[in-house]
Amino acid sequence: MHNAKRSFTLLPLYNSVSLLAANTQSLVHRHISHSPPAAAALMTDTKLRTSRMHLLFMLPLVLEVLSISMSHNFTYDCTCHLELKIAICTSSNFTHLPTALPPLTEQLDLSLNHLSAIRPQAFHSTRRLRVLLLNDNMIGVLADGAFSLLEGLLRLDLSRNRISFLSEGFSRGLGSLRDLSLAENRLTSLDSSCFVHFDALQRLNLSHNVIETIKMRAFGSMSTLRQLQLNSNNLTILKNGIFSMLRNLEVLNLHHNQIHYLDVGMLSPLTSLALLDLTNNNLSTIQFKTFLSLNTYSTHIMLQGNPWDCDCDLQRVFRKLCNVKRLFLDDYDNLTCVNLDESHRNYTMKEEFCVAEMVTVLVITMTVVITVVAAILMAEKKRKTKNKEKHWTEVGELACASHD
């Protein structure tokens, strides 16, 4: 395997030396076969000297290339497929980027190494890269303009590193990038300037970080984004304006955060949203308008694993949501309540857990009605009694009037 890898660097030189030796030997034999014996002997000696001179001339070049080849890890620790324009340098214990990469390389795999930093314009010798895999390293520093020369890059994988901060120049030069993974790093916040040059990005994976805050317009340049993975972070509140430019977003994954509040209008810009995953958060209640603002053709919503504070108001909200034809609560039957007593702790949202409250309301209503009716009857009875017990003077006057 090592010989095959080494041949990438040495094969052109080896071919040149072999061709030179073969041509020299061919010329010697050709001239000897057509010359008299004495002349042939002299010519043989002359040609052999010339051949040796050529070989001696090439020897320093051979030794230099051998020295260069031995000094670069790439020769021995990377596998190159020139016809496919692929360089695989995975699991090679690199601590720095190899410098002897083929300039026409389009796919470079540097995963599972020990890289700790990416310097400015680090890939100046491989500007034609379309796929760059840097996952599973120890990268903690991404310098401004580290990828600025990779204008044709389509996929960048930086997952499972130690990145805690993205500078303003992180996205510089990556206007063609479509797929970016920063999963399983140490990001705590997303500033409004770290993604400004991602004009063509379609998939962004930010899962399994420790993100607590997302600044307004952090995704402002991502009008083409279709999938956003923000699951397994420390988000608590989603405010209006965070997703204001994501009109083409189809998948929004927010499961396993600490979200306890959703602004009413924060979902309204997501006019293409097909899947919203809010499972395993800290939501205890929601507002009907929050999800009604989703002006989509069809959206599947997942809400299981939240500590729902079940009451009749929340149940009415969910029932109204179930009647919205464009919204699908895929796990509605599995939404459990946490605020009920032990005997009802496993009640689901669809059950009539608020029957007692309804009965109480009904009893109160009936009591009020009965009280009102009783009051009316008592008033009527008093009126009739009063008419029967009129004063005797009124009766006498009536009698006298009749005699007259």
From TrEMBL:
One Gene Ontology term, aspect cellular component: plasma membrane
GO molecular function, one term: signaling receptor activity
Pfam families in the record: LRR_8 (PF13855)
Keyword Repeat among UniProt keywords: yes
Transmembrane segments: 358-379
Biological process, per Gene Ontology: positive regulation of non-canonical NF-kappaB signal transduction
SMART domains listed in its UniProt record: LRR_TYP (SM00369)
Gene3D superfamilies hit by this protein: Ribonuclease Inhibitor (3.80.10.10)
Keywords for this protein: Glycoprotein, Leucine-rich repeat, Membrane, Repeat, Signal, Transmembrane, Transmembrane helix
InterPro entries reported in the protein's UniProt record: Leu-rich_rpt, Leu-rich_rpt_typical-subtyp, LRR_dom_sf
Source domain of life: Eukaryota
PROSITE patterns documented for this protein: LRR
Protein name as it appears in the record: Uncharacterized protein
